[in-house]
Each structure stands twice: as C-alpha cells, then as structure tokens.
Design brief:
Blueprint (H helix, E strand, L loop, with lengths): L4 E7 L5 E7 L7 H12 L5 H20 L4 H6 L6 H10 L15 E6 L2 E5 L9 H22 L6 H16 L19 H10 L12 H17 L3 H5 L6 E2 L4 E4 L21 E4 L2 H14 L28 H12 L10 H18 L6 H12 L7 H6 L1 H20 L9
Antiparallel strand pairs: 1-2, 3-4, 5-6, 6-7
Helix pairs in contact: 1-2, 2-5, 5-6, 8-10, 8-12
Length: 426
C-alpha cells in the first residue's frame, strides 16, 4: 500500500516550528487532523514533538481505515462507533512499524459482519514496534477519535451518545499494552566503560590512523563534540543549541540557554535544550579546543558567518556551513559506533550517564565530606534538573548500594570467622 499521507514541516514568521498532516499528492492539509492539532495540541500548549507524535499515530489510524475501507467520519455521523473487534484489529495495527508494507486485502479477511458487530482479522503480526510506542499510538488515537466523534455527532448533548463515545474511548485505552515496570538498575550503571571512553577519545583525536573521519576540520569538530559530551555531560539538544557567544573565553564559562522557536535558527527540526539554563565552568584545555575550532576551522565557512551556532556542517553542498542538524549528529554517532564492537553503546546520553558516574566517583574520593542532600543539589544544577525532581536522587542511590555491597561482604567474613561453615568447607 502506497502511503498517501505525509508530514509538512515549516517555520512560522515568529520562529515557531509547526507540522501538519497533508495529502502527499495534493499537499493539502487534512481537515479534522489539522483542526485537532490547532485546537487541542497547539492550543493546549504542547510542543512540536507532541504534534509529531500525534501525526505519526494518526498515520497508523488512517492506514488502518484505508486498508479496511472504513469511513470513520461517516460512521460517526451515523452514530456508529468502534466495536470490540475493530478495537482489537486497530490494536494489532498499532503494533506494526509505520514503514512496514501492509498486505493486500486479498491476503486478509477484510471485513465480516456478525451479530456481535464488525469482526476484522489480519495476518499474523510481525514482531513490530516496542510496546511503549504501541501504547502511545493508541493513547493519541483514542483521544482523537473521542474528540472527532463528539464533533461529528449532531446531538452532542445526547446522554446515550456521550456514553457510547466514552465507552469507545475507554475500550481503546483498555487495549493498550501494559506498561513494563522500570527496573531498579541505577542510571549510573548505564554509562560507558571507562576504558571504552578512553579508546573513543583516543581514536577520535585529529590525525589518528583509525579515525573514521578523514577531513581534518571534521576531525577537529568531532573531537571537540565528544570532549564536551564527556566533560560537561550535555544533552544532544543542548550541544547543538550552543552559540559561539555562549562561550566566555575570559572566565572559561559555557552558558546553557533555552531558545525555543529561535528566529536565528534556520533548522526546521530545531534542537532544543530540555533542561534548565545554567553556567558551567570549563578548564583551560577545553576552552582552548573550542577557541581553536572557532578561529581556525569554523571561520573558513562563509555561511557559518551568517548564524551564531557553534557546530556546523562541513560536508560540501547547499548546507555547508549551516548549523549541525540532529540527523547529521546521529550519523556522526553511528559512524563512531561502527569503528569497533565495543563502541556500540556510544551515544550522547551514554556520555551523560558516564559523567554522572565519574562525578560520583570524584565525590567519593574527595577529602571534603559531602552529604547526600548537598550532592543532589550540586548534581541537579550541573545537569540542569529542577531541585527536588528526584532525578539526581537516582544517581545518589549509589551511596546505599555501595555501602550495602561492602556490608554484606563484611558480614560474610564475620560468619566465616565465627565457624558458620562446617569443617572441610571453603
């Protein structure tokens, strides 16, 4: 089945990033999805990433409707809502990857009418998307269909209709996969092995024979990117959002700002800083690396002089000198991961986890005693988390964990000395 729906991305005059679901052939926005995005998502103050998630979910719904030749709008006007069997079919469809080719109708039992309602049977599902993706899709679809049914039902104040719509809404949500419980594995254990970090930093040094990037300027840029991820624990969005003016080379400070919908950012998919604004100190060596990149590499690109962003695209073409995009950053990391099997876990957030592990180790060996409360405050500021959010506390649990490990070993030693084991046992 050919996809007839596409996402249109554009930047408004005020810098706001916006997305619409359009007919891929005509480019015309779909009426009710556009109305929902405008009134419910954007009107509710939600982010552009939420709009994208809704559009992706709605593409799944529309493919399902097209596949079974169901006119949902006409159905709702006739006050015919989704049956249990249809909800089950929709649930299975939400498990499919969006790019997966949907089988022709001849390979499925498209639609059978039974006394219980519409029964739909689809072919055996593929492994599909992650359960949390399916969960989010069904949540968006349930809310949208409830809204659409209320809009299209002529007598929207009819109690019976409202009950049927509410029942359909609850039924869809009830068929979402169960959320998996988060494991108790601490985030500081998700960081990279220190040896792997050293290997990555070594290979990415400009001029290294195993460096996967050949352009000297790209090597300087990438080495700096990894150094800032490692030593500052920045998020990807924060890194790509950095401007040259955010670096104070006199005081050796890096300022992290939030700049949503910036007019000076030409990127349609604007990298965003999710965490709080803050100022981070950097050492002389890192400041020198940043200065070298700005003065000897970045300054050579004419287009780079037209915007303030620190990291730029070096690849020849229309975007040369433009701010480094999210997709280009992803390709960079993928290239690094391909250097060695040990590098498969190398990505921006793994450096952030590693930073927290290193920070914990540093405080453990510090001569100055730092309380758990004080450590949490320090970590929250440096990572850009709100005080009391609980995120920093996750990393602080290592105090209890490490002490528990030592305590149980000491306890076992005491039991051995006390003659707990029988003679001859070791």
């Amino acid at each position: 089945m050919t996809d007839i729906y596409s996402t249109k991305h554009f930047i408004m005059d005020n810098g706001e990033r916006y997305k619409l679901l359009v007919n891929a052939t005509t480019g015309i926005p779909l009426y009710y999805p556009t109305l929902y995005i405008t009134s419910q998502i954007r009107g509710g103050g939600q982010s552009v990433s939420t709009i994208q998630s809704f559009i992706t979910s709605l593409k799944v719904l529309l493919r399902w409707l097209d596949h079974y030749s169901v006119d949902m709008e006409e159905r709702f006007r006739r006050k015919e809502f989704l049956t249990l069997q249809e909800v089950e079919s929709l649930r299975d469809f939400c498990k499919k990857p969006l790019k997966e080719k949907v089988p022709e109708k001849s390979n499925v039992i498209a639609l059978k009418r039974t006394k219980e309602g519409a029964r739909m049977a689809v072919s055996k599902p593929s492994p599909g998307v992650y359960s949390h993706t399916q969960y989010n899709r069904m949540t968006f679809i349930a809310d949208y269909l409830k809204w659409l049914a209320e809009i299209l039902t002529k007598d929207r104040y009819n109690t019976a209709d409202k009950n049927h719509i509410s029942e359909m809404h609850k039924r869809i949500k009830a068929h979402r996969p169960k959320k998996k419980r988060r494991t108790n594995r601490d985030r500081d254990e998700k960081g990279l092995d220190p040896k792997v970090v050293e290997q990555v930093m070594d290979i990415l040094k400009p001029g290294h024979e195993k460096n996967p990037f050949h352009d000297p300027g790209v090597q300087v840029r990438n080495a700096l990117i990894l150094a800032m991820l490692r030593f500052l624990g920045l998020r990807r969005g924060e890194l790509l959002n950095l401007r040259v003016e955010d670096i104070n080379f006199v005081s050796n400070e890096v300022h992290i700002f939030r700049r949503p919908d910036s007019l000076s950012d030409p990127r349609t998919y604007q990298p965003l800083a999710k965490t709080l604004e803050r100022t981070l100190l950097i050492n002389d060596k890192l400041a020198e690396k940043i200065s070298k990149y700005v003065t000897t590499v970045r300054s050579k690109f004419i287009q780079a002089r037209r915007h303030p962003y620190l990291f730029i695209t070096h690849k020849a073409g229309p975007y040369q000198g433009a701010p480094l995009s999210n997709s280009a950053f992803g390709k960079l990391m993928k290239e690094v991961q391909g250097v060695s099997d040990n590098f498969s876990g190398v990505h921006a957030h793994s450096f952030r986890h590693t930073w927290n592990y290193t920070f914990s180790a540093l405080l453990d060996t510090s001569k100055e005693e730092v309380s758990s409360e004080r450590e949490e405050q320090m970590r929250s500021y440096l990572m850009g988390w709100a005080d009391g959010s609980g995120t920093a506390a996750i990393y602080n649990r290592r105090h209890i964990k490490e002490k528990a490990k030592k305590a149980i070993l000491e306890h076992q030693k005491g039991m051995i000395k006390g003659g707990v084991f029988r003679d001859g046992e070791k």
